[in-house]
Amino acid sequence: MTTSLLLIVQIVLVIILVILVLLQKSSSIGLGAYSGSNESVFGAKGPASFLAKATFSIGFLFVVNTITLGYMYSQASQASVVDEMVEDNNIVAPAPTTLPTIPTKETNATK
């Protein structure tokens, strides 16, 4: 259950990270042109510093979550179903049979 929750968080972080990267201004116009009217929302410097800090924070959370997921999956892969099996063995071993003795040369010489 924990890995499922972390996997969902990972997907959400990826989506947010992609959106933040696409909203940033670049040397080419890109999708940053659509956020031009919202510059006053982020402060006097515009969205550059806010988006850079948000991208760094989300990127850091993404890396930490990736390392955590990798560790949890590696621990889960070392466990085996066979290790948890309880062997229920009710089989009775057969009684040993006596083998007939074969006469040897020494036995014949003494007679």
Automatic annotation (TrEMBL):
Q: Which GO terms describe its cellular component?
A: plasma membrane
Keywords, ordered alphabetically: Cell membrane, Membrane, Protein transport, Translocation, Transmembrane, Transmembrane helix, Transport
> Where does this one sit in the cell?
Cell membrane
The processes (GO biological process) annotated in the record are: intracellular protein transmembrane transport; protein secretion; protein transport by the Sec complex
TM ranges are: 52-73
Extract the InterPro entries matched here. SecG (IPR004692)
User: What are the GO MF terms of this UniProt record?
Assistant: protein-transporting ATPase activity
| Membrane-protein topology | Multi-pass membrane protein
Family statement: Belongs to the SecG family.
Put simply, this protein is called Protein-export membrane protein SecG
Gene from which the chain derives:
secG
